[in-house]
């Protein structure tokens, strides 16, 4: 696991997939910055946007879908309306039926990372709600996720 110093040093170029998000007034909390819960919503959104765009996931129809089984976020700075956030995504580990994502939030035009998180998803069969022990995640999901797998990170068998 990277240290906080290493996480704070993350750059956009560390992430192969970037998605912009225009903050909304309702994203702010009473302290005039984006509420912490919104980071989780946005991290989930960038992951699922990637799964739809690059992996062929059809959320209401695909035979497999992904469940979040772990998430964590470290915060280093704030962002608030009307700024534009850049959500950055990469795969840290790719297993038989699971994936660990590194996600970061940057403010457009600002070099310093605002937050870095980790999400772990397990791909399960829609009919059973369980991973497919024989095949794991679908080949299309695996192929799409391999495109943003950070080189040098070990593939695990989770």
Automatic annotation (TrEMBL):
Q: Which domain of life is it from?
A: Eukaryota
Q: Name one GO molecular function term.
A: fatty acyl-CoA hydrolase activity
What are the record keywords, sorted? Hydrolase
Q: Does the keyword Membrane apply?
A: no
Q: Which family does it belong to?
A: Belongs to the 4-hydroxybenzoyl-CoA thioesterase family.
Name assigned to this protein: Thioesterase superfamily protein
Read off the lineage from the record: Eukaryota, Fungi, Dikarya, Ascomycota, Pezizomycotina
